[in-house]
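Note to self: the last two entries modelled the partners one at a time, which told us nothing about the interface. This time every component goes in together.
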Amino acid sequence: MGLGFIVGVLGVSILAHAAYSTVQFRGLLKIMEEEFSNPPMNVVIELLLGLVLCMWAALIVPGKFLSIHPDSDENRMVSLPGNLDFMIFNHRAKVFRSEIDMKLKL
Amino acid sequence: MVTKTEETQLNRLENQVDNGGGGAWEYLCLVKKLKVRRPDKVLRHGLSILNDPKKRSALGPDVWTLYEQVSIAAMDCQCLDVAKDCIKVLQKQFPESKRVGRLEGILLEAKGLWAEAEKAYSSLLEDNPLDPVLHKRRVAIAKAQGNFPTAIEWLNKYLETFMADHDAWRELAEIYVSLQMYKQAAFCYEELILSQPTVPLYHLAYADVLYTLGGVENILLAKKYYASAIDLTGGKNTKALFGICLCSSAIAQLTKGRNKEDKESPELQSLAAAALEKDYKQRAPAKLLLLTSALKSLKTS
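The predicted structure of the combined assembly is written out below.
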């Protein structure tokens, strides 16, 4: 969590910095009266780096991935629950009393 | 529904608790969440928590659900005194509660006083005619007395109102199977598969019923459902694999005289047999010989 979060913050700040750089670059172009075709190379690299970091953090921080396969251990049913709403009590416990001799202390 | 991970977690916790390793409360919570029936263990570990004032006060308001859980477990173990004491405590805390009234009805059932229990439930139903648990308890009373036609009648009436209750459908299916009314049971399992298509155990039960009904068409259909159960479990269900083998040999036997060429996927049986052999080799090598001879007799017959 800690590392992923820090990386995420770093990635977002790098993206913000890239945006700021682009704005500044456009301001510079306006002064020099040139056409804006594409941002400078270092901003593009910065953008890509920020993207990678943000993506990595977004995959790590929110939690683990859950399996969607029906046959994975997390999703595979192995037994149905005892149908407790319909439970009936005339079974062998009547004859074989349990050895638990505990009482509820009031 | 109990998945594989939850099952292993439950077994681990059970082992830990039984060997005095602590974690009794977590175990009881898991038992309750998974709705498994472990009355003796719930009774023992639940009472050990309830009898310890320090542990009991640490639970806060959860202690009341624990009292309920322990009282039902005690009835299941026929320790009626403990159950009565638990209910008394609950009654003191919640004097007007319907839930406690229900517990009292269940206690009457555990004592075998059917008429009194019935009366208690009817009076509770007057206040709240749409309480599903009360209706289910009435079915259980009829079932406990061995009065299956009445139980079926109640259940059908209940299912008319609460059609989405798959537990009730399952109960009805199981009653029908126990009475060998397989056609009706098949209908219930169809309903269950419709409402929860991803549960392999319903596919398996439906296939079992179809196979028991017999006839080429039913067995062909049973084979398909065994196959879908294998699909949903990734081939880890031994019963479904055996089902494929049995269905294939039954179909071969039934269609022997006819030279109808409706052989669909003839390799399915050998694939299932291979999977079974692999599974047995891994988990029960001592029984491998038994399996191979059984499979051989299926093939030759």
